[in-house]
Amino acid sequence: MLALDEVKIEDSEKISSIYSSDDYTETRYSGNTKGTAQHLIEIANNSWQQGCEVEEKCFLPHMKTIMVNDVIMFVNHDDFEHNILVRGDSQYLHFPADVIRADEYFVYKFNVPGKYEYVCTLHPWMEGKITVER
Prior knowledge:
Blueprint: H1 4-20, E1 25-26, E2 39-43, E3 59-60, E4 63-67, E5 71-76, E6 85-86, E7 104-109, E8 114-119, E9 127-133
Parallel strand pairs: 1-7, 2-5, 4-9
Antiparallel strand pairs: 2-3, 5-7, 6-8, 8-9
């Protein structure tokens, strides 16, 4: 198990490589900030197929704790399109874009503390949780 500081360093290195890579593009008109991400959530390869939920490996990591005003990068490593909707909300986190295509990413800033459960509505077995603390 990685220590929290090691996870932050690992996230930071992966985020930097995604921002600087020609292999990834930002989902057009998406997210709620132009801020730089401090955290990373990855849509796992082959998560479009049922089974990733058994070991909670559809979104990596399955659970993430951040602070208010932190920015998360969501990146799609799968070959299929996905979306991310917080349960109880009517708009995707990447609104107005409908989907996140393969090798696309978007960033989202969480301004309100709380527990957020999210799901891919195209593949409803894909679930994750974010806790936002003060």
